[in-house]
C-alpha cells in the first residue's frame, strides 16, 4: 500500500458534470430519469478510470456500506430473485451515490458558478416553455413547462435543490447568483409543484439555523426567492389540464387528486411492508410487487377514470420505498449513517443544506432517482478528507462496471426515439416505417431489463397479426413485471387471437384478481364466455362490478357479444345476450319523470319483456319485473308496481351480480311491502 496523498478533481469537473446531467435534451426518450441516471454512471465511471482517487472512508461511509450489504443480504434471503435486473440496477445506483460522497471535489466554492449557470439555463428554458417559446414537438408546452427534465416534478426537484446549493455557496450576492435564484423561484411558481417548496423551505431553514459565522446571506436568499415567486405567481402557474374522468363527477383538482394518490400509494406500501417488515421485498422490487396491493381508488385517480393505463414506478416517498425494498433494519442503518453525516463540524454544516433539502423531498417525492438533483446534494455534502491512491486497480474495475451498465439504457432510449417520434407525429394506427420499427426492436434488445420496450413491440406485432412473435415478446416482458395486469391482458389477448381460449381465460382471471375493476379485462373474459357458449358467465363478468367505462357502453358491448354468439351458431347464447342488451339500454331511463325519459322507457319496457321471453328468462329472472315496477312508479302507478311484486314466484332469486346496475333504484322498491319482503329474502 502507498501512503495517502492529497489530490483533488480538476476544476472543470463541475462545468462538465452539471450541464451533462441537465442540459442534453431529446424529446422522444422513453424515460428521461433513466437516461440521467445512466449519464451519471457514465461520467462517474469515466472519472474513476481517468483518476482513480477517493477520499478516505468515514464513519458515514461505513454505515452506508453496511446498509448496502444488509440490503443485499435481505434481498438474497427474500423470495425474490436477487440476480434480477431490477435488484442489480438498484444496487449499482446505491453504489454510485456512495461514491459521490467520496469524490475529492476540493474547494466547494468552485462549484458556485457552474451551479448558478446551470440553474439559470434550466429555469429560463422552463419559463420559455411556459410562454410557448420552447416547445419541441409537443414536449414542454405552456400547460406543462417541464424544462429539460421531462417531468414537472422532476424539474422542480432539481431547481429547488440547486437553489439551496447556490444559497449555500454564495459568499456575496453577485449578479449571476442573484439572477439564477430569482429566475428559478419564478420558474418554481410557474411549474406549480408543491413538493418543490417543501424542499426549498427545508434547505433554507437549515441555512438560517447554521452558525452565524458560516451563515452567508440566508435572509438575502429568501428575499430573492420571495421576489421571484411573486413574479411567477403574477405570470400564473401552468394550467393543469387533465382528462375528464368517465364518471358523473367532474375531474378532481390536481391538488386534491395528487395528495389522494400519494396517500393510496402509501397505504399500499404499508401493506407490502407488513408482509416482510424485516427482510423487505428485495432491492428494486417496489414497482414489481406494488400492483399486487394497488387499490382501486388509486387507479381511478391516477388514470382519471381509467382513460389510460398508468402504473407508479416509485412510491412517491423514498423513505417508504427503501423500507419496503430493504426492510426496517436496513432503513435504520441508513438513517444512522445519514445522522453521522449531518453531524459535520459547524464550519461544514452550511454545505449540507442541499442534502437536507433532498432528504426532506424524499418524504413526498422520489428525488433519490433524480440524478442531477442527488449529485448536487451529495457532492456538496461530501466530507473533506485525505485522498488515497491505494487501490487504483479496484477503482478502475468499478469504473469499467459503471461504464458498462450506463450504455444499455442510453442506447435503448436513443434508438427508441425514432419510433416515439413517428408515433407522436402520425395518426394512431399508421403503420410504422422500417426505420421506426428497427428503433423499437433495437431498444428492446439494448435494454432487456425494461419491459416497456417489449410491451410496445408486442403490441405492434399483435397489430400486424404476428401472433407467435407477439406472444414471445410479451411473455418476456411479463417475466420482468409478472403482476402487471396490462401485460397479463396483452398476453390474454394474444392467446385469444390464437384460439387458445383456456389460456386466455386463465390469464384474464389472474389479471382480474390483481385489478378487479379493469374494464378491458372484464370485456375480454365476457368475449371468451360468448365464444364458448357461456352467456350467463359473459353477462356476470360485465355486470357484477360495472365500471363507469363499461356501464355507459353496456348495450353496445352486449350487442357485439350477441353478434359474436350468432356468428358461432349459438342461438340460445345470442338470445340471452340480446336480453342483457335491451335491459342495459332501459336502465338509464328509469327513475326519471321528464317526458322524454318516460317515452323512452315506455317504448323499451315491452322490448325487454319480449327479449327475456325469447331467452327463456321470463320465469327465471326477476329483472324484467323490477324494470316494469320501476317504470310504473315513474308513471305514478304504485298499484301496478305492487301487483308485480305480489306475483313474484317463491323460488325466484336475485343473484348479487344482477344488483349493481340497479343499486340506485332498489331503495324505491324497498318502500313497497311486497317488494321489500322479496328483496330482503334474496339479499344473500
Structure in words:
This protein is mainly alpha-helical. It is 65% helix and 1% strand. The chain has 32 helices and two strands. Strands 1-2 form a two-stranded antiparallel ribbon. Helix 6 packs antiparallel against helix 7 and helix 29 runs antiparallel to helix 30 (638-646). It is elongated and about 95 Å long. The protein starts with 12 loop residues before the first helix and ends with a helix.
What is shown here, in short?
The chain has helices at 13-22, 32-50, 59-77, 85-100, 112-130, 152-169, 175-191, 194-208, 218-235, 254-275, 286-293, 296-302, 318-326, 328-342, 353-361, 371-381, 392-425, 434-446, 451-463, 467-480, 485-497, 501-514, 519-531, 535-543, 548-551, 554-567, 571-586, 595-614, 623-634, 638-646, 666-670, 673-681; strands spanning 54-55, 387-388.
Using brief descriptors, characterize the structure shown.
1% strand, 2 strands, 32 helices, mainly alpha, 684 residues
Q: What's the main sheet like?
A: 2 strands, antiparallel
Number of strands: 2
Q: N-to-C terminal Cα separation, in Å?
A: 79 Å
Percent in strands = under 5%
Question: Which regions are unreliable across 5 or more consecutive residues at pLDDT < 50?
Answer: 241-256
Counting H and I runs of at least 4 residues, what is the number of helices?
32
Mean pLDDT figure? 90
Radius of gyration: 30 Å
